[in-house]
TrEMBL record:
Cofactor detail note: Binds 2 [4Fe-4S] clusters.
Residue stretches making up the 4Fe-4S ferredoxin-type domain: 18-52, 75-98
Keyword rRNA-binding: no
Annotated catalysed reactions: (R)-lactate + A = pyruvate + AH2; glycolate + A = glyoxylate + AH2
GO molecular function per UniProt: 4 iron, 4 sulfur cluster binding; glycolate dehydrogenase activity; metal ion binding
Protein purpose: Component of a complex that catalyzes the oxidation of glycolate to glyoxylate.
Keywords recorded for this protein, A-Z: 4Fe-4S, Electron transport, Iron, Iron-sulfur, Metal-binding, Repeat, Transport
EC number: 1.1.99.14
Transit peptide found in the keyword field: no
Cofactor: [4Fe-4S] cluster
The protein, known as: Glycolate oxidase iron-sulfur subunit
Length: 455
C-alpha cells in the first residue's frame, strides 16, 4: 500500500471534532525529518519491506491522523500500528531524537476505543486487562492455574500433540507456558545466603507479575545475589503489575491506576533504589515520569519514583561484583531484551554480571540487539510476523553453537525457549542473575534451609 492510498482511505469515517491523544504530540511528530536512518533497525520493516511497517511510515500515519487527513478508524492505521513491536530500536538509530515509544503509546490510545469490538482476541485481552490484571488475587489464581498446567505437563502434552498435527500457531501459547519451566532441579533445592557481608544499602525489589507468577526462582535468585553483594533487600507487599500490558494496549488510564499503586507501595523508603529484573517492567517503571508529566498531583512523585528504578545488573555493577565459581557449561550467548537495552539503557551491565562467573565462555550473538518477536503479547496477537522474526533470531542463536542463552526479560525468555522447543533445538534459557546465582551456589556461598522454591 502506498502513502497516497493510505492518506486518502477512510476519510468519510473521520470526525474533525474528536479529541485524540496524538493531538498532544505535535512537536514529537514534527521532530521526525524523514531521513529513513531508522529503517534498517526496524525488524518489522526488514521482514515485510513495507514502508508503512517502518518507524518513518508509522509516523507518517500518526501525523495524518493527527492532522485529520486519515481517520483513526482507518484499517491502514490500525494494521501498521498493531504490527509495531514497540521494541524502540528505532529510537537509538534516530539522529533527531524522535521519542517513538511515546508516539506509539498515543497512537494506541487512539485505537483503543475502536479495538474493543474488533475480534475475539482483542475482547479477551480487554477482559484480562480490565478484570484480572488490576486484581492481585485473581492474577495470583490465574498464574497458579497456569503453573499447575505447566508442572503437571498438561501444556507440554497438548503442545506436542498440536505440533504433530502441524498446528504450530495453536501450539505456540502452550509452548510459551512450557518454556517458563525451570531448566533443572537443583540437588539442594532449598537455599539461604550464608556468606553475605554487612548490608550497607537498602534496595526495594519489584517482583513483576509474570516473573513472580511463572519465574519466582528468578526473583529469589535476584534477592540472594543482592544480599551476597551487600544489599538489604525488602519487598513491598502492596506492589502490583507495572502496567506495561495496559500501556502497550493503549489503555493509559489502566496503566496510570497501577502506576499510582506502585508509587504508593514503594514510598516506604524514598531513598532506596527500586530493583527490577525484567526489561519490560523496568522500562515501564521508568516511564511513570512521562505518564504523569501533565498531572500536577502526581508528576513530582512519579519523577522521583522513576529516578530510583534500576535493573539488577545496573545496581550490581556499581560496586565490585563478587565472583562465584566456574559453571563448566560450554559456550553461553546473550540476547538483549529490547526494553532493557533501549528503555533502561542497560547494554554492558548484564554482560558484566555474566563476566563475574569465572571461565564462562561468552560467545557474541549476531543481532542480539534486535527484537525476538515476543514483545509482550505481540506473539499472540501478531503470530505470523512474530514467528518470522523469531525464526531469524533462532537461526542466529544456532550459529553460535551455544547451548545456553541468557536474557533479562521473561517475555524474551519464553519466546526464545518456546521457539527452540518448536524447532527441536538444544537450548536452555536463563536470566543472567540465575547463572550468577548458580555460580555463587557452586562457590559455597549458600546453605540449605527449609523454604519453598517450586517455581
Ligand atoms: S518500535 Fe521496533 S518495530 Fe516499532 S517502528 Fe520502532 S523499530 Fe520498528
Ligand atoms: S531516523 Fe528519526 S528522523 Fe529519521 S525517519 Fe526515522 S524517526 Fe524520522
Amino acid at each position: 500500500m502506498t502513502h497516497v492510498e493510505v492518506l486518502t482511505e477512510d476519510r468519510a469515517l473521520h470526525s474533525k471534532g474528536s479529541k485524540l491523544a496524538l493531538d498532544a504530540c505535535r512537536d514529537k511528530l514534527l521532530a521526525c525529518v524523514h531521513c529513513g536512518l531508522c529503517l534498517e533497525a526496524c525488524p518489522t520493516y526488514t521482514h515485510t519491506g513495507d514502508e508503512n511497517d517502518s518507524p518513518r511510515g508509522r509516523i507518517y500515519l500518526m501525523r495524518a491522523v493527527k492532522e485529520r487527513r486519515l481517520a483513526p478508524t482507518a484499517r491502514a492505521f490500525a494494521r501498521h500500528i498493531d504490527r509495531c513491536l514497540g521494541c524502540r530500536a528505532c529510537e537509538r538509530a534516530c539522529p533527531a531524537g524522535v521519542e517513538y515509544g511515546q508516539l506509539l503509546e498515543a497512537a494506541r490510545a487512539d485505537l483503543l476505543p475502536i479495538k474493543g469490538s474488533r475480534n475475539m482476541r482483542e475482547r479477551l485481552l480487554r477482559f484480562a486487562l480490565d478484570h484480572i490484571w488490576p486484581n492481585p488475587k485473581r492474577l495470583h489464581l490465574v498464574f497458579a492455574l497456569l503453573r499447575r498446567a505447566r508442572d503437571a505437563k498438561i501444556s507440554g502434552a497438548l503442545s506436542s500433540l498440536l505440533l504433530r498435527l502441524r498446528l504450530e500457531e495453536a501450539a505456540f501459547p502452550l509452548l510459551l507456558l512450557q518454556a517458563s519451566a525451570p531448566n533443572m532441579k537443583r540437588e539442594n533445592p532449598i537455599i539461604s545466603v550464608t556468606a553475605q557481608g554487612q548490608a550497607t544499602e537498602r534496595v526495594l525489589l519489584f517482583l513483576g507479575c509474570v516473573t513472580e507468577g511463572l519465574f519466582a526462582r528468578i526473583n529469589r535468585a535476584t534477592a540472594r545475589v543482592l544480599s551476597l553483594n551487600g544489599y538489604e533487600v525488602r519487598i513491598p507487599r502492596a506492589q502490583v503489575c507495572c502496567g506495561a500490558l495496559h500501556a502497550h494496549a493503549g489503555d493509559v488510564s489502566g496503566a496510570k491506576r497501577l502506576a499510582r499503586w506502585n508509587i504508593e507501595a514503594f514510598s516506604e523508603d524514598e531513598a532506596a533504589p527500586i530493583i527490577t529484573n525484567a526489561g519490560g517492567c523496568g522500562a515501564m517503571l521508568l516511564s511513570y515520569a512521562h505518564l504523569f508529566a501533565e498531572d500536577p498531583a502526581w508528576a513530582e512523585r512519579a519523577r522521583r519514583f522513576s529516578q530510583r528504578v534500576r535493573d539488577i545488573s545496573q545496581q550490581l555493577v556499581q560496586r565490585d561484583l563478587r565472583r562465584g565459581a566456574p559453571l563448566n557449561t560450554g559456550p553461553v550467548t546473550y540476547d538483549a531484551s529490547c526494553h532493557l537495552l533501549y528503555g533502561q539503557k542497560a547494554e554492558r551491565e548484564p554482560l558484566r554480571m555474566l563476566e563475574a562467573i569465572p571461565e564462562l565462555k561468552l560467545v557474541p550473538l549476531e543481532g542480539s540487539e534486535r527484537c525476538c518477536g515476543g514483545a509482550g503479547i505481540y506473539n499472540l496477537l501478531e503470530p505470523e510476523l512474530s514467528q518470522s522474526i523469531l525464526r531469524e533470531k533462532l537461526a542466529h542463536i544456532g550459529r553460535t553453537e551455544a547451548r545456553i542463552l541468557a536474557t533479562g526479560n521473561p517475555g524474551c525468555h519464553m519466546q526464545i525457549a518456546a521457539g527452540a522447543i518448536m524447532l527441536g533445538m538444544k537450548l536452555e534459557v536463563y536470566h543472567p542473575v540465575e547463572l550468577l546465582d548458580l555460580s555463587y551456589e557452586r562457590a559455597g556461598f549458600y546453605a540449605i534451609k527449609a523454604q519453598d522454591r517450586r517455581h
